[in-house]
Automatic annotation (TrEMBL):
It comes from Brevibacillus composti. GO terms for molecular function: ATP binding; ATP hydrolysis activity; phosphate transmembrane transporter activity. The keyword Cell membrane applies. GO terms for biological process: phosphate ion transmembrane transport. This is Phosphate ABC transporter ATP-binding protein. Keywords: ATP-binding, Cell membrane, Membrane, Nucleotide-binding, Phosphate transport, Translocase, Transport. Gene3D superfamilies: P-loop containing nucleotide triphosphate hydrolases. Transmembrane segments: none annotated.
Length: 236
């Protein structure tokens, strides 16, 4: 079953058309990689999947994006609920200037969870899911900025998971990291795929080949190829 269905999507930044007639189905519990040269529309397209472009002035969208069967551009859609269902991780690790514990509990508290024991459980399970628990379990009250870049990025993944989303959007999540931290996150994605649907923008073709089930290749705002990753990489 497709968890995301995109039909004839066009996106304009003012007069400039950044996406042209995009059509895409994304399977649940898969990893889809978006590749293509800088400026081809990868990040823009990723942001259409959780309406992050809404925050940018002058953006106009045509077509439809269905997430779990619901057209997210219908005005009745609650964007807060949508974003709860779709976590996002960015290129630069961006933990809140708070403790490790508070980074994880921020989202759950926003959604009304106040029970201390429940919050403790969420902190532990989210950090375990992001393969960070063992490294931070004794320093949960310390500021997040004390962590290494790779640890901060795994904290941002844990923070995204803490509100129990179905989908994880990642915009070049390893581009700012060293090779060892990158490898850790790639390993983690293979595990997360069991539970979540992952869409990842990467400028690294080898990374797309290593980690993804399907690869989408963008050029000048068009989706020029979209197929299983082995097929894409045997037909250069
Ligand atoms: P990629 O992620 O593939 O590098 P982007 O989605 O960032 O590409 O950009 C696609 C095109 O849209 C580029 O021409 C870029 O300059 C333009 N663009 C991206 N973001 C904005 C914005 N906020 N306002 C106007 N134009 C933008
Ligand atoms: P990246 O390629 O790493 O995504 P960019 O340099 O394309 O980074 O974009 C950085 C930020 O600037 C993004 O938020 C993007 O939306 C915005 N941006 C990119 N191109 C433009 C543009 N032509 N006009 C306004 N904002 C833009």
């Amino acid at each position: 079953m497709s968890i995301i269905e995109v039909r004839d999507l066009n996106l304009f930044y003012g007069e400039h058309q950044a996406l042209h007639h995009i059509h895409m189905d994304i399977d649940a519990n898969s990893i889809t990689a978006f590749i293509g040269p800088s400026g081809c529309g990868k990040s823009t397209f990723l942001r259409t999947l959780n309406r992050m472009n809404d925050m940018i002035q002058g953006v106009r969208i045509e077509g439809s994006v269905k997430v779990v069967g619901e057209d997210i551009y219908q005005t009745k859609v609650d964007v807060e609920i949508l974003r709860k269902n779709i976590g996002m991780v960015f290129q630069q690790p961006n933990p809140f200037p708070k403790s490790i514990y508070e980074n994880i509990t921020f989202g759950p508290k926003l959604h009304g969870i106040t029970d201390r024991q429940k919050l403790d459980e969420i902190v532990e399970s989210s950090l375990k899911a992001a393969a960070l628990w063992e490294e931070v379990k004794d320093v949960l009250k310390k500021p997040a900025y004390g962590l290494s870049g790779g640890q901060q990025q795994r904290l941002c993944i844990a923070r995204a998971l803490a509100v129990n989303p179905q989908i994880l959007l990642m915009d070049e999540p390893t581009s700012a990291l060293d090779p060892i931290s990158t490898a850790k996150i790639e390993e983690l994605l293979a595990e997360l795929k069991e539970t979540y649907t992952i869409v990842i923008v990467t400028h690294n073709m080898q990374q797309a080949a290593r980690i993804s089930d399907k690869t989408a290749f963008f050029l000048n705002g068009e989706l020029v190829e979209f197929d299983s990753t082995p097929v894409i990489f045997q037909n250069p």
